[in-house]
Write a structure and sequence with these properties.
With about 140 residues, this protein is an all-alpha fold. The protein is built from four helices and no strands. The termini are far apart.
């Protein structure tokens, strides 16, 4: 299963529900918890993990700038930043895998095709009057 980004996941949720993500988020707030709110929560967690990756990657890039000397003090920051980046990547991977699996298991149900109405059962035959066995005079 390929790794999906939060943008791709948002597109799949929109396709599944047939509405923009902002509209779905507004709709989900007025509803009891269900599949839509779960998918939106998973999407938010994935987006947060992606932003966290960007922040920690940028911080590490600043710390290892080629013109700067790396001293003992910077080493602890490098190790902490590396750990945080690895955690953010792990969270992103788990979230992406989980939401992709859920979305793969779901699909839009096609609208019922208009089929000809089922024939109604035949009406019972009219009752015949009972014939008398007595002879008429």
């Amino acid at each position: 299963m390929p790794q999906l980004t939060s943008t791709e996941i948002a597109g799949r949720i929109e396709d599944l529900y047939g509405a923009p993500l902002a509209d779905l988020e507004a709709h989900a707030q007025d509803q009891p918890p269900g599949m839509l709110s779960a998918l939106l929560g998973m999407h938010d967690d994935l987006a947060l993990a992606e932003r966290s990756i960007d922040v920690h990657r940028d911080q590490l890039a600043r710390l290892i700038h080629p013109e700067w000397q790396i001293g003992w003090h910077e080493v602890s920051h490098l190790l902490d930043g590396s750990r945080r980046l690895a955690e953010a990547v792990a969270v992103r991977d788990v979230q992406a895998k989980s939401v992709a699996a859920v979305l793969q298991s779901l699909g839009r149900v096609p609208a019922p095709a208009s089929s000809p109405p089922a024939p109604s059962p035949p009406l019972p035959a009219p009752r015949r009057p009972a014939q008398s066995t007595a002879h008429s005079r």
